[in-house]
Amino acid sequence: MLLKYSDEIINAEKLNTEKIIPASLQSGNSHLENAKLIEKILKGEGSESQNKVVAINVAKANQLYNPQQIIQELYNESLEFIASGGAKKQLKLSI
């Protein structure tokens, strides 16, 4: 069940990780380049900063469906899922 969403600022300290420098995040110059970049991240080939950004977004989305779970645990699970290649496998199943 999806519960009511509320905005929340999640800082690096809450996740027990270092802050991300925005300049370390790069995007492509086109939709195709961005799609390739996302695929690279999901294969576990993204930069540390890219992996962290994707992981916190996945963790927060999962928390909307599982509000009893702790965001730091979901974040760590998401990082592991990306690093293990699980995200790549899931992407292949989805397309």
Overview features:
5 helices; single chain; mainly alpha; 95 residues
Question: What is the rounded Rg?
Answer: 14 Å
Give helix and strand order, one letter per element, not per position.
HHHHH
Number of strands: 0
Class per helix and strand makeup: mainly alpha
Shape: globular
Helix fraction? 55-70%
Strand content: under 5%
Average pLDDT over all residues? 87
Question: Ends: how far apart?
Answer: 25 Å
Largest sheet: none
Count of helical regions: 5
Low-confidence runs of at least 5 consecutive residues:
none
What does this structure look like?
With 95 residues, the protein is mainly alpha-helical. The chain contains 5 helices and no strands. The longest helix is centred in the middle third of the chain and has 18 residues, at 48-65.
Write a compact overview of the structure shown.
The protein has about 100 residues and is an all-alpha fold.
SSE blueprint:
Blueprint: H1 12-15, H2 31-42, H3 48-65, H4 71-83, H5 86-94
Helix pairs in contact: 3-4
